Amino acid sequence: MSKDAKPAHKRIDQFFSGPGGRADDWRDLVEAAKAWARGGGRAKYDAALAELLVTEEFHGYPGLQLMTALREAASAGDAATSLALATRITQALATRSFRQHAGDWSATDDGNGDVPELVPSAFGAHTTRRPYFETLIVTGVSSSNWPALAAEWRKLRRPTDAFVYEPVIVGSLEDAFCATMLNPNIAAVVINDGFGLRSRHDAPVLRSMTAAAGLNDEADASALRLAHIIKRVRPELDIYLMSNRDVEEMAGNPEANVARRIFYSVEELLELHLSILEGIQDRFDTPFFDNLKKYAQRPIGTFHALPIARGKSIFKSDWIRDMGEFYGLNLFLAESSATTGGLDSLLEPTGTIKKAQDKAARALGADRVFFVTNGTSTSNKMAVQALLAPGDIAIVDRNCHKSHHYGMVLAGAQPLYVEAFPMTEYSMYGAVPLKTIKQALLDAKADGRLDRVKLLDLTNCTFDGHIYNTRRVMEECLAIKPDLIFLWDEAWFGFARFSPFLRRRTAMGAANEIEAWMHDPKSIEVYEKQQTELGKNPSDEVLLKTRLIPDPRQIRLRVYQTNSTHKSMSAIRQGSMLSVKDVEFHTVEQQFKEAVFTHASTSPNQQLIASLDVSRRQMELEGYGLVANAMEIALAIRQAVNNNPLISKYFRVLGADAMVPAQYRQSGFTDYLAAGVNWANTLKSLDDDEFCLDPTRMTLVCGTAGYDGTQFKGILANEYNIQVNKTSRNSVLLQSNINNTRSDVAHLVRVLAEIAGEVDRGLAQGGANAKKTFEARVTSLMKDVPDLPNFSHFHPSFRGDAGAKTNEGDIRTGFYAAYDAAGCEHIRLGDPEIDRRLKAGPELVSANFVIPYPPGFPIMVPGQVITQETIDFMRKLDVKEIHGYDAKEGLKLVRTEALAKLGRPKPGAQPKLKAAS
């Protein structure tokens, strides 16, 4: 959030500063120590240290000994020691060397500390690198006994342990929650009985949230309550409950299923230590990747396809050996067409791929996950093909990725297109309002065709960062049609699962919340109360205005989510996952197998599958911190661009208030950088607002600097080695991800400052003519923008069985009409014949998809009647890439005579398939 002037005292409930904020605090301490050591005052150093002492309690390193040493050096007035120790700790944190080197834990330069039990020899004894994590210990033991308790935990370390961890001890529910939020290194939590509710530190925002959750009394600080709170925030964490009461009773309580294991608290700690390591090992294991590594080390004779397997054809060649040297031997040793020897088959996984997919399902909160090795385009087509039959109706965002449209063609389903709200100034669309979706369902119901509406297909988040209120959309749609299937294309949003703020806005996150609500006895009461208020036959107008509640007894929860794992996690390009949470999956399982057989390669890339396996491991073990860093990077970019006096003259990153119209921000939320914004009111926005903005996606307006998006993208790439995601007429899209660093931010800001300086100098030195030319260019880019065309309608030839109110069409027949060359014609875009036919007829009917980049969605689909606004938009387009349109040939149209024939059944033709039940 906005990084305003630092408060007089440190608050523990500022959860948006992230890992970089902590690093900045330590660097501030070093700078204050330098000033003090040079003879300046020590007040600034004392203040910086006092702030750090508060939140460093929630981290394993530097730990109590080093923080005490810092405090004692300051109390003794020793500026030199304070500077030396603060510098060493800061460097260890920056390089993360403390995870492997025992010397970093010592208060002395020689690495021989005066508390030997702090770092037993086991910490640094391994010759190979051991992953490091921290374990949160929540206890009712007095804080004066915490050093002794920590020492007991450290004594459990053994040289044979695969991992090494440091305990972090807290004594209250609030501190446990804050530690979980502030410390991304925490990977396991041990909760003992007897801890308190309140932190001894200042936390007004946290207090308001705990009060809203009903946590007001010390008796509310139960181990099980805390376990559920932590699991909701960070579901990937292993939780261990330690009870000194009737553990058998607790173990038999269904509410205790959030715990990995329950212990009787007086038992030996070694079993708990081993359980913690086992839990980490479970997440660390990558079944397919582990077997692929073993396979690569075996002496195998290959009498199979794939000559490059084992690399012999590469490394023995004088002509292509350089490829082997570039990629390395292991890439080829791990290549194989075999599905035996632990490698498994992606088409019929029963072994290591199956195990890897099961782990991915756990990580993503799904019932099952499919690995896909040719991108989310294929994941989308697989889902559409498996879930829809010829004649089925699907409500589809017209601006969704082309794979959904092609999926409808393959399935023979009839898309009922719904429109997103336009952002004409920036030549982009937002997302589809819920009212529009509900209206489509109610229209189908009025036409007596609701049974044919099988699927709602939406993009979340959109290319430009618009996020749906997924829970609200699904609940309100289920109130109208309880068995509606949902397909959420979250190609760009896979990382959101690992953010406690954004998770609720994912398909799987919302589906799990709905499932929990359905099992809450109060849900029926809430539903029936609304039904009484609505009456027996509420009008459509009332239903559209009401936030509808579904009948929990009637819901058939069927949710599908596709993720481009390679777009936001550490997977190789084209790595995708398809997540399923569907109580009726058994009815479509065979269809899914057929869809897999249709689209998946019989020779999938082994390295790609392995990268999907490994990306899951990474996100389960460190995804929380990586995503927090990506969000922090994005906020730093927004802050640096919009607050820089020079850069902001010509560039700006659009805030939520510019990207989401006010009527869809019911909470009043304006932007992440607005004054007074904190995690509590951001949560309110994420819970209540119809649309939110993904903070990691930044629309940088460049039209105000005189550059169109394509032009500016080229300048950044060719002259400054900066790659951006997409463009619009007057903007480029920046995206932060788990790969970005603060150095990337610095490079981007420096480049923008340089370009802004060049524009500034050019205007200052060019005189009146230069300013006039510049202003005209800006006006052209920012004001003279084409209206965005909506979907018109399908031609009647493709609506033979359509309803009166709904606007679906037979896109498959329209698509294949283009295969009849004699039945099609071409008319150039500038030909006056187009204008004549728009006025006098006959209608212009598109024979194919026409997709300009940008904006990257079909402005024409097969069988669509072309309108004046679509032609105007195309004539104003100044982009080079338009899929489905040949400028030399012109628009491809279905001839009028061919349209007439399409409406007549052919002799001997089979009747159309009826909608599947």
UniProtKB/TrEMBL annotation:
Residues 286-514, 558-736 form the Orn/Lys/Arg decarboxylases family 1 pyridoxal-P attachment site domain. Its cofactor is pyridoxal 5'-phosphate. Keywords: Aminotransferase, Transferase. GO terms for molecular function: transaminase activity. InterPro entries: LL-DAP_aminotransferase, Orn/Lys/Arg_deCO2ase_major_dom, Prn/Lys/Arg_de-COase_C_sf, PyrdxlP-dep_Trfase, PyrdxlP-dep_Trfase_major. It holds the Pfam family OKR_DC_1. This is Decarboxylase. It comes from Bradyrhizobium commune.
